[in-house]
Amino acid sequence: MWERIKTRAQEVHQHPSDHGINTKIAADAGRSSQTVGDWKHGRTPVPPSVMVALANKYGVSARYLACKTDDPQQSEPIAESDLTVMALEMVEEALVRATLNDGIDPMAGARLAMTAFEMLKQGQSKSNILGKLIYEAEGRSDDQ
User: Fold this and answer.
1) Helix %, strand %, coil % of the chain (to 5)
2) What is d(CA 140, CA 124) in angstroms, rounded to the nearest whole number?
3) Is the whole model's pTM more than 0.85, yes or no?
4) How far apart are alpha carbons 30 and 122 in whole angstroms?
5) Beta-strand (E) ranges in 24-144?
6) Helices vs. strands in the chain: H and E counts, helices first
7) pLDDT tens digits, the chain, 144 residues: what are they?
8) C-alpha 95, offset from chain centre
């Protein structure tokens, strides 16, 4: 699987060398170079949501990158309307899980939906998105 990801990244970035390709893949995936190194060496699997994001970026199917098929033909990328529905479902779940004393105002809900939508587009995992949404719904900031 790693070879397919690396090869597609090299083609997309016109970067034939192995040197520095992890950094480019990390940027494409919205992850650290260390995380990409873990994928490369089989220490951790590539999350399905990241596989989909990389496949969309590289113009192939996620099944191809995951070595589930030899056909690189990409089906239609996930429609933004589907991503919107997924984002709203995650916001709803985050609000249920969050410890809210005074409820949440509609504008905060809209901001959470936009956060979820952007994170989905980046291919981030559901657990990362939910964690961020719950954190924000509870009104916590990075400096607390």
Assistant:
1) 60, 0, 40
2) 21
3) no
4) 7
5) none
6) 8, 0
7) 889 999 999 999 998 888 999 999 999 999 999 999 999 999 988 887 788 889 888 988 888 888 888 888 765 566 677 777 778 887 887 877 776 666 666 677 788 888 888 888 777 777 788 888 888 888 776 544
8) 21
